[in-house]
Design goal:
Layout lengths: L6 E2 L9 E5 L3 E6 L8 E4 H13 L5
Antiparallel strand pairs: 1-2, 2-3, 3-4
């Protein structure tokens, strides 16, 4: 996991940001303010489903 390339959205401000790194078999997600605090890892199928839901507006309030 040390060779992952982490990135943050250009739209992120200084608060409440997450970073992600897309690996071969999983997407890794972490808190920008606590990079050593742990990482959420989801497989590519789950990540694609999540992004599809975001694009379809399923998580809009």
């Amino acid at each position: 996991m040390n060779n992952l390339k982490w990135r943050k959205s250009r739209r992120s401000g200084t608060n409440n940001c997450v970073e992600l790194a897309i690996g071969e078999s999983a997407t890794h997600i972490r808190d920008t303010k606590d990079r050593g605090g742990g990482t959420l890892r989801v497989n590519q199928r789950a990540w694609a489903g999540f992004l599809g839901g975001v694009k379809a507006g399923r998580f809009d309030r």
